[in-house]
Amino acid sequence: MCRSIKTLRTPEGDVPDEEIEAAALQFVRKVSGYRKPSKANEDVFNDAVKEITEASRRLLGSLVVRA
After folding, report:
1. Is the dihedral of CA 58, 28, 30, 21 positive or negative?
2. Cβ(21)–Cβ(53) under 8 Å?
3. In 3-state terms, the chain is what percent helix, strand and coil (to 5)?
4. Each residue's pLDDT tens digit, 9-66
5. Which of 29, 25, 24, 19 is nearest to 10 (CA)?
6. Are 60 and 15 in contact (CB under 8 A)?
7. Using an 8 Å Cβ cutoff, are 21 and 32 in contact?
8. From residue 58, how far is each of 15, 38, 52, 62, 66 by CA, in Å?
């Protein structure tokens, strides 16, 4: 996986939405091979970022983190 994606889980559990969205964007870029998709792929690219952002939010909100 891309080394620039950092771990978002913290003992405090409060992760800014911007960091979750940035990580989702990096993931979709890595998987798709597009830094910026063509017009033909823009909608599906953006939908994937949104879906991964939401899944990441749910995951981070559900994790039990021991301090």
Report:
1. negative
2. yes
3. 60, 0, 40
4. 777 768 889 999 999 999 999 999 999 999 999 999 999 999 999 999 999 888 887 7
5. 19
6. yes
7. no
8. 12, 29, 10, 6, 18
Long-range contacts formed by 28-34: CB under 8 A, 24+ apart: 28/52, 30/1, 30/2
Burial label for 28, CB within 10 Å (0-12, 13-18, 19+), is: buried
Question: Closest Cα partner for 24 from 60, 44, 62, 54?
Answer: 54
Residues contacting residue 62 through CB under 8 Å, at least 6 positions apart: none
pTM (whole model) above 0.90:
no
